[in-house]
Predict the 3D structure of the following.
Amino acid sequence: MNKFKEFLANVNWSEVKPHTVVSLILQVLAWINMGLTAAGKPVIDVHEDVINQVVGIAFVVGTSLYGDWKNHSFTWTAQFADEIAYALRDGRLTLEEAEEIKNKIGQKDVIVKVDKDLFEKELDDVAEGKESDDIVG
């Protein structure tokens, strides 16, 4: 229980997007409905058992697939963001260094394309304490 409390304390609730909250709520409701249906007490009270099971299964499958797609890293950008998060968590990148990169990105008028190699070089430079301000190609 302490790990769960620690996790909740570390969540940056002010930056959580509404679609993330909706996805989480729908997935929790789907799992609750599935569990209650398995116990013989369906939340979606339909007289025909087949319809109830089909709706329950479709609900669980749909919300699970949606949650997996939204919350797992399929794109390079998401995978790179995961690398940044892991580096922050493991102490290989400080919060100040990450904020510096974020501020540099925010100073650009228009971001057309992120050059993967240049961005990774910028992260390496920041980690080594070098100054650089050209992370967008």
